[in-house]
Amino acid sequence: MSEDKSPRHAAERRAAEVSEAQIAVHWPEEDYFPPPAQFIAQANLTDPRIFERFSLEHFPECYKEFADLLDWYKYWETTLDASNPPFWRWFVGGRINACHNCVDRHLARNRNKTAIHFVPEPENETVHHLTYQELFVRVNELAACLRDAFGLNAGDRVTLHMPMVAELPITMLACARLGVIHSQVFSGFSGKACADRIVDSESRLLITMDAYWRGGELLDHKEKEDIAATEAASAGHPVERVLIWQRYPGKYSSGAALARGRDVIVNEVLADFRGKRVEPAPMPAEAPLFLMYTSGTTGRPKGCQHSTGGYLSYVAWTSKYIQDIHPEDVYWCMADIGWITGHSYIVYGPLALAASSVVYEGLPTWPDAGRPWRIAESLGVNIFHTSPTAIRALRRNGPDEPAKYNYHFKHMTTVGEPIEPEVWKWYYSTVGKGEAVIVDTWWQTENGGFLCSTVPGIHAMKPGSAGPGIPGIHPVIYDDDNKEVPMGSGKAGNICIRNPWPGVLQTVWKDPDRYVQQYYARYCKNSDSKDWRDWPYMAGDGAMQAADGYFRILGRIDDVINVAGHRLGTKEIESAALLVPDVAEAAVVPVADQVKGKVPDLYVSLKPGVEASPKIASKVAASVVSQIGAIARPHRVVIVPDMPKTRSGKIMRRVLAAISNKQEPGDVSTLANPEVVEKIKKQAGGQD
Ligand code: PRX
Q1: Which member of 35, 84, 269, 430 has the greatest number of CB atoms within 10 A?
Q2: Cα 556 to middle of ligand 1, angstroms
Q3: Distance of CA 235 from the midpoint of ligand 1 (Å)
Q4: Is 441 in the pocket of ligand 1 (CB under 6 A)?
């Protein structure tokens, strides 16, 4: 932070105080909780000397240990080629297949073990326990179908827009078997959002499902695909085919008609591929495994490109040592596979270790807040992984439910947003029954896997703090003047990682400049340097490091709102509002919410001569939902006479954020139109 004490800067600082980071976390330092002795007695990692083995002195060769968890067709020659920063190349020369590592190699010892427990939302539907053998058969048949019926080749892209069903990991693994790059779009996203990702990735196929259960309703999903396919075509990139899985094989559960020549029912074509086998493609370690789109500072979502060898080794190692997955464990990560957490910690990490991984279709609170605990009891789940938003919802809707069920967790994870100590303690004592260790894992879509977390068998837990960097990850906090903020100083800054690691994104799909700009330009010490030490990775989060080395994450520093643990770009939401012809300007700000952490408040001003009306407000909300999805639905749409602006015409979102969060906006006298602030306060300050 600047040390300038002038009144003008003081005023700016006060306005800046109402930043996302400041709204996010106010709680004081908490006491430690030791990991339960029972947990330590069985943990995969208890020796603190791991941190010496993974010190920067041993970088990058220490990461050999990660890659050695996998089967390689050809062992790599160079652990890290860092000769062209920041384009890191891991395990160069190696050949590997992700599907082989997650399926085939387990057959010898675990053929009849459950790979995936698929739990449908309706409680009267049978749970499907898919063995590794069955997974092998289904993945092979689909891979054969994708190759022979649709002509897919290694390197082609395919967009998936699938719900939480066993067919989703099957489809991802079939793509991986062929070296085809999958790009799964969260099923809650709209057809338009899906189309944007089809176009950007130049996907040849769109694979989806006709319908799925959510909150007691069988949602028609196929109708979204008509929008996705039509929009993609009109944007100049039509998909060749839309492949539709049936939620109930043999029955079509959508009201939308099938488009002739475009739409194909997967379950029907698969009949021609029964018993077919496909050899996994020995891909270069650096071949992209998948794209995962995420929001950034500009309107367009970025396609984070993840590698095969580096990514898979990273998620396998972190699943083994941070998730502490053992062969006999039943592991449930309640995230959606449409987000990175699901890719890394439902599909690739656990399956690489031959674990049993639960895929639950529906809402955690459906039909009541006891559902997760019934599932845990009936499947014998002993490792549980979820987000603070889900924990808050379960606590609010069923604070006493966990005690009613006979399940026992040894390990629990929280991910995606800061967790309030009070919520953490409920998770610990009520959900975990005081028996489970908790890891608060901080990371991002771009990172492939965990960055900061306690090592569960080594460190004490501290509610509200993620913990130190995991072995091999060396975080540092920089201030606005590029100086390191020392630990224990009580000051916040930008958290960065000093070193590359195998799970980090390779680039932004088709946009290497954006990759450099977004993650490396800000704190690069010398842009001509070929030394990786000059290229710290900037995460875009504010953070503080306590004297014990634990990091506390304060929230985003860029134009991103974290709603229920999911990143939404403010520009994406604002552009959707501007599609309504009456709207002149739009500004979105995060508002603290008891359950979701943050929700978006959307301020709009109208074109001259247009009267404000509830109808316009609902048109604006509807536009956001149709462009992005229900997850981005504004908490409120506030129609204001004008936006608070700086003299240079910049909208002061921080002033709006303060009003939405019922805080003082500070000194606004430097604004071009300070008088508007009072008006907006009257309009929006009091209401919820
Ligand atoms: O602000 C941080 C927050 O979520 C952002 C990353 O979001 P996404 O790419 O969607 O990935 C979410 C799951 C990995 C981060 O920049 N975040 C993530 N985990 C935590 C967190 N904030 C606080 N504590 C965490 N454990």
Answers
A1: 35
A2: 9
A3: 32
A4: yes
Nearest to 627 by CA among 293, 297, 190: 190
For ligand 1, mutation pick of 553, 570, 596 (most atoms within 8 Å of CB): 553
CB 245 within 8 A of CB 212: no
Task: Please tell me whether the overall predicted TM-score, pTM, comes out greater than 0.85 for this model.
Answer: yes
Q: Which atom of ligand 1 is nearest to the CA of 294?
A: 9
Rounded Cα distance between 352 and 316, Å, is 6
Q: Which atom of ligand 1 approaches the CA of 445 most closely?
A: 9
Q: Is the peptide bond before 48 cis (omega within 30 degrees of 0)?
A: no
**Contact indicator for 356, 349 with CB cutoff of 8 Å:** no
Say if ligand 1 is within 6 A of residue 464 CB.
no
Sign (positive/negative) of CA torsion 98, 103, 107, 113? positive
Q: How far apart are CA 573 and CA 580, in angstroms?
A: 12
Strand (E) or helix (H) holding 304:
strand 302-307
341 lines ligand 1 (CB under 6 A): yes
Mean pLDDT over residues 272-300, rounded? 92
Average pLDDT of 273-279?
Answer: 98
Q: 261: burial class by Cβ within 10 Å (0-12, 13-18, 19+)?
A: exposed
- Which residue's C-alpha comes closest to atom 12 of ligand 1? 416
Ligand 1 centroid–CA 415 distance in Å is 7
- 631 C-alpha to center of ligand 1: Å? 16
Check if the beta carbon of residue 384 is closer than 8 Å to that of residue 346.
Answer: no
Arithmetic mean of pLDDT, 55-65: 98
Is the minimum distance from the CB of 452 to ligand 1 under 6 angstroms?
no
* pLDDT tens track for 212-230: 999 999 999 999 999 999 9
Residue 446 CA, closest ligand 1 atom number: 9
What is the Cα 332 distance to its own chain's centre? 16
Element (DSSP H or E) covering residue 584: strand 583-593
Q: Which tens digits make up the pLDDT trace of 408-438?
A: 999 999 999 989 899 999 999 999 999 999 9
Got the DSSP string for 155-196?
Answer: T-EEEEE--SSTHHHHHHHHHHHHTPEEEE--TTB-HHHHHH
**Residue range 623-647: mean pLDDT, rounded:** 93
d(CA 540, CA 79): 27
Shortest-distance Cα residue to atom 4 of ligand 1 = 416
Any residues with CB less than 8 A from the CB of 663 and at least 6 apart, and which?
18, 23
Q: Please indicate whether residue 340, judged by its CB atom, sits closer than 6 Å to ligand 1.
A: yes
Residue 420 in contact with ligand 1 by CB distance below 6 A: no
C-alpha distances (whole Å) from 636 to each of 555, 556, 621, 653, 685 are 22, 21, 8, 15, 12
Instruction: Give, using CA atoms, the residue closest to atom 7 of ligand 1.
Output: 444
pLDDT value at position 559? Answer: 78
Q: Is the CB of 412 under 6 A from ligand 1?
A: no
